[in-house]
Write a structure and sequence with these properties.
The protein is mostly helical. Helix content is about 35%, strand content about 0%. Strands 1-2 form a two-stranded antiparallel sheet. The longest helix has 15 residues. The radius of gyration is 36 Å and the shape is flat.
Length: about 190
Amino acid sequence: MTDHGQFEPNSSADASRWAPKQHPLDRSASPEDPFELMAQPVAGDPEVMLSCILEEYLWMGWNAEQLKGLFRHPDYPVLGQLREHYGEEELNARIEALVARTGVLRFRETVVEPDEDELNELDELDELDADVMPIGAMDAFDLESTSFGFCGGGFEPPLVQLGGLPQDHADPEGIDSNSTGGKEIDRKVGPSL
């Protein structure tokens, strides 16, 4: 080690493994560098590639004319190479055959607008649901005596009635003592009592 804490090779074996410190942008990338992506051509089957591309676009709802245009688009050079490989006539015949065999997937969606009266009813329900738990609703049970048993007993939170409890309900129906000494309120779905 030097005075500055840098490693210095002290044998010829260490010196042969030693590489000078160099910023990655200052050196050329090598195929052995695990942090650099190196694009390399691989062997492929144009038949499989063509079939996969055509089927995928057919499943998305493209018709034969749209598919033919895709192979002439300048932004897709590999598809242009497939067109050159098979020829325009062969490519068109393959597209037409696949469309005839599988068809083009189409979806139709119908949107039905609600009446103005239905919208007003929904707005009124939203206003009622805004007060999910009014002040005083938590008075129906004691949180301190409710078991939350994190250490082996399991988590048992109290169940609160949706829409809240009436404030004048000191002892609502459905309160039971469970085995741990806590209290639970049965969950009821619907508007407030």
